[in-house]
Amino acid sequence: METKEDIIDYLQSIDMGIGFQDLNEHVISKNACIFCGACISLCPRIGVRDNKPVLLDSDPECSMCFKYCARTYFPEEMFEQDLFNGNIPKDFLIGHYQKIIAAKSTNKEILMVAQNGGVVTTLLIHALNTGLIDGVLLADRDENWVPKPTVVRTPEEIMLVAGSIYTMTPTLLSYSDAINKYKLKKLAFVGMPCQIQAVRKIQLWPPLSEEYGKFSLIIGLYCTSNYSYDLMEKLVQEKLKIEMRDVKKFDISRGQFIVYTKNGQYWQVPIQETKKYNWSSCQYCKDYTAEFADISVGSVGKPEGSWNSVIIRTDIGKKLFDDAVTSKKMIVANNVNLSKIKEEAMKKKSKIKKLDEKVFSAMKFLKISDLEIRTYAILVSLGNADLPMLNRVMKLEKEVIDNTLDSLVKRKWVKSTDGFYKPINPTKVIKDEIYKFKKDIRRNIERIKKEAMVDLETLFEQNNLMYVRYEEYFDQILYKEIL
Ligand SMILES: Cc1cc2nc3c(=O)[nH]c(=O)nc-3n(C[C@H](O)[C@H](O)[C@H](O)COP(=O)(O)OP(=O)(O)OC[C@H]3O[C@@H](n4cnc5c(N)ncnc54)[C@H](O)[C@@H]3O)c2cc1C
Ligand code: SF4
Ligand code: SF4
Description:
Layout: H1 4-13, H2 20-28, H3 38-42, E1 46-49, E2 52-55, H4 64-67, H5 76-84, E3 90-91, E4 95-96, E5 99-105, H6 108-113, H7 119-129, E6 135-141, E7 147-152, H8 155-160, H9 175-181, E8 187-191, H10 193-204, H11 208-212, E9 215-221, H12 230-239, E10 247-253, E11 256-261, E12 266-270, E13 295-298, E14 308-312, H13 315-326, E15 330-333, H14 338-349, H15 357-364, H16 370-382, E16 385-386, H17 387-394, H18 398-410, E17 414-417, E18 420-423, H19 426-464, H20 472-482
Parallel strand pairs: 6-8, 8-9, 9-13
Antiparallel strand pairs: 1-2, 3-4, 5-14, 5-15, 6-7, 10-11, 11-12, 13-14, 16-18, 17-18
Helix pairs in contact: 16-18
The structure holds flavin-adenine dinucleotide and iron/sulfur cluster (SF4) (2 copies).
């Protein structure tokens, strides 16, 4: 399956035959799971062990867990059409948006508990009070900062869970309770860019969307990366010797991970030292600003003090935001540093994994140059890129990259559309290359047999008749082994 259309057709037509086994093979065992909780919430046969989904019962292979997983195929173009109607422009680095603005809550109590300017908490309370939503799926935590997915239904409960938790939180685990136990029909979701992919699928993609897509508002948080709970155990407790229940707030600012305690002290650790606790699949993530949210909120690019930078994307997001400002729940300012936001987004989009030397040496057999395989691997890491982006990442002359891309397009390793290059699935391209490689060997064997062996054998027989035996079967064995 090569094109999006193929995959969409495939996923929509085949309801049986794909199950947890496939989810495990393609997502969980590849350390690509972001522990969003969608599969666990959608299927009673899936549970949790060691912060990973596990199969608890026999699998009817109904395809739901695979289709709605945050990390499997995301029908981007289809959702872009649904959400942005083809008239909200798209920026390659930060996605579709109508307006980028700085904002902060006017409520002092919210500002006391919020992470930055309290925009998320303020928008949620305003959405609840005006009837846009009837509940929210949020990330709460216990006294040891162990994350707890929760469903909240009152402004007071929303205030109680304000602030950022730097540990992967399976917020969608509470989705099942929200619709089955509390019978909520207009849900809001706040979460990381990766989680929003699962939420949009549930909201917009049939068949689940028709009965269960009860989301009315999706707020995304900017995200460079998230952590496993090891950050709390090994860094905060063991290294810094801070009791978790004494922590008031965590923050990441100006390259430092900061721990504030309830007695007014704080500790700073360079962000570099926290990287070993990163959630493993964050290394493959390209979305910094939650490109599929209705509104994205962060701190990068905000003015000094308790403010947020806000990216308003959909009409739903714009209406809610404007209404909250008109109702004096928030104040706004225009001094957002957009270049700073784009710089962070660029860093995330251009993160690449280096290939092992073994790959280069194996590829030599297929007559693929190091530059071709490097360019292809970079495209696999980036997912999709244009020439200026590749030029920035590879730091090579544009002409050299352009020629390499031409060659990769001719070899059918890469597809080019509207100036953007997309890699074709490696299983397909390598299989094609092996097929060509086998064909070449077969042709060369025939040539050797026809053009060299016959002449050499004649010469040998003419001069060494006394040694000649029938040894053609050696050749057949050789031929079978190679092919
Ligand atoms: C793991 C993580 C990484 C982040 N990285 C960046 C970054 O690189 N750059 C940047 O500018 N901003 C980042 N942010 C966003 C920033 O920390 C603030 O959340 C954002 O600015 C909103 O501020 P606020 O005052 O409006 O939030 P608040 O009004 O305090 O509301 C925050 C909301 O976020 C929810 N929440 C908290 N933690 C999580 C979580 N782990 N998963 C899902 N939901 C959660 C809470 O339930 C709460 O409702 C990150 C946030 C998190 C959680
Ligand atoms: S990313 Fe989410 S839906 Fe996919 S396997 Fe992990 S928990 Fe399940
Ligand atoms: S870096 Fe990506 S995968 Fe990791 S938490 Fe952030 S959005 Fe999710």
